[in-house]
Design goal:
By secondary structure, the chain is of the alpha+beta class. The chain has a single domain (about 10-65), classed as Irregular (Rhinovirus 14, subunit 4), CATH 4.10.80. It is elongated and about 65 Å long. It has helices at about 40-45, 55-65; strands spanning about 10-15, 20-25, 30-35. Helices cover about 15% and strands about 20% of the residues. A hairpin with a 4-residue loop joins strand 1 (about 10-15) and strand 2. It has 2 helices and 3 strands; from the N terminus they run E-E-E-H-H.
Length: about 80
């Protein structure tokens, strides 16, 4: 690599809006984020499905509930 053209690669602490902190490496001096794995609804299990236009019901009406039912594995 050529000397003097690459930014410094240092260890930084990333702070989330929820207060969580974790260490990583980056070229930025200070890193802040609005959402992380500790507060994101997908990772915390608090995710909500909003169906304002009836898309889920329309799908179930078209394909039935058996299409979305989990597949049972056979024990052989």
């Amino acid at each position: 690599m050529r000397k003097g053209i690459h930014p410094e690669y240092n260890e930084v602490t990333v702070e989330c809006a929820c207060g969580a902190k974790f260490a990583t490496k980056s070229t930025m001096a200070l890193a802040k984020t609005e959402i992380c794995a500790d507060c994101h609804p997908f990772y915390t299990g608090k995710q909500k499905v909003l169906d304002t236009e009836g898309r889920i019901e329309k799908f179930k009406k078209k394909f039935g509930n058996s299409y979305t039912a989990p597949v049972k594995k056979s024990n052989k």
